Amino acid sequence: MKLQLSSEPSILVTQNLSMGPPEDVGIVALELVVPAQCVDQAELEVFDGVSAGKYTVGLGQARMGFCTDREDINSLCLTAVAQLMEKNNLSYRDIGRLEVGTETIIDKSKSVKTVLMQLFHESGNYDVEGIDTTNACYGGTAALFNAVAWVESRSWDGRLAIVVAADIAVYAAGSARPTGGAGAVAMLIGPNASLAFEPGLRATFMDHVYDFFKPDLSSEYPTVDGKLSIQCYLTALDHCYQLYCRKAKKLAGIESESNDMVGVKSLDAVLFHTPYCKLVQKSLARLVLNDFVNTPKENIPDVYPGLEKYTGVQLEDTYFDRDVEKGFMEFSKAMFAEKTQPSLYVANQVGNMYTSSLYGGLVSYLINKPVSELVGKRIGLFSYGSGLASSMFSLKVRNEGLKTLVTNLSHIQTMLENRKIMSPKDFSNTMAMKEQNAHKSSMTPIDSVENLFPGTFYLKVISDYRRSYDRVPI
């Protein structure tokens, strides 16, 4: 490979370096990529022989995206990065860090990031920090934190960073299969961002648990303890939210026990990692329950009318208490519709995208609100990855560059509507074929590329484990 190094930084880099320490570091632009085919969850209910509404109402899912043998984790990420760069008219010389968060491992040594470096060849830019970050659905958030820290650090050289959160979520045939999905979100990170991180407002909870893991390296399918996984998710949510509120109070200098200034009421939107949409509605109600528990008893009748009977309840006793869950879901219904439901559009249509799930929610929220209503909003985000790793943080929406950011996402609804809806039988056959081919050293994909969206990278061939890709013309 002949290296043609570019010695001159772009104008963008020079300008950034001359402006002093970076301010308002965060997400400058986003791009969402999903597979070109999906299965209808209502049809899947019939095919699986389950009761009507089990997937559509019980899980809150309408469709589920899935990959054929033409798409893998590399192709999803290649497409996301290329489209992010092209839509924002950027040179690859402007990128100084590229990091991938994924749990979809197709090589135990070679990172997806190194595959993405082929996009940089023409620019001659090989000075790009970052590799892959892995821990279930949390890897994208860890990669995002790393990129933000790099821009804010003394090591920053003035260039932008890219974070890709991407996964293909697949399950063995059975009750868990409808909770799959696939997608990638690429985020451009830099100063003067439209979505700026709020300094000091980040809370993390980590623990050692076997709720969801992939110990069998010969299989794509996870080992899952469903009940434990939900309990871990809610436990992590409680801990992160309580700590987030304490940090917010400290920063604001608030001594009162009331959460009016720092609780759910202080956030204009609350977004969650979304294994399935129904869990997210329960999660928003869970935050209200946290605020309720932290409210002085004498104030509860005024602040939470109708919920007085839950006074004195302990959070750790309520993970599977249907009465408490129902009560707080009903109380927070209007709040959910305003602050959270707009973020579930992609999840409802695509399913669980693992590391990119939370950021697909961010894309959904941005395209479901008028730009004029977004400026100045505070968005709270909760990220969870089994095993476990979790964080809660918040972004402030700024006017600078916001219209361009949202405009570049305006194609999302059309893209989702234009996917090919496959029959459940074809979906099942595709899953079986991919399972058979998962570890072959050489393989030529047989699925058609005609259904792929323009600009999509796809797997051309695997030869002696080496994967090569081509691209659908734009």
How helical, in percent, are the residues? 25-40%
- What is the average per-residue confidence, as pLDDT, rounded to a whole number? 93
Oligomer: single chain
How many helices in DSSP terms?
Answer: 16
Structure description:
The protein has helices at 11-18, 41-48, 73-87, 112-116, 139-152, 226-252, 277-293, 300-303, 322-331, 333-339, 345-350, 357-367, 371-374, 402-407, 412-417, 424-437, and strands at residues 26-33, 37-40, 63-66, 95-101, 132-133, 160-169, 181-190, 195-206, 212-213, 223-224, 269-272, 378-385, 389-397, 420-422, 457-463, 466-471. With 474 residues, the chain is α/β, with parallel strands linked by helices. Strands 5-4-6-7-1-8-13-12-11 form a 9-stranded mixed beta sheet, sandwiched between helices. Strands 3-2-14 form a 3-stranded mixed beta sheet. A hairpin with a 2-residue loop joins strand 15 (457-463) and strand 16 (466-471). The chain is globular, with a radius of gyration of 22 Å. Mean pLDDT is 93; it is low at 1-7.
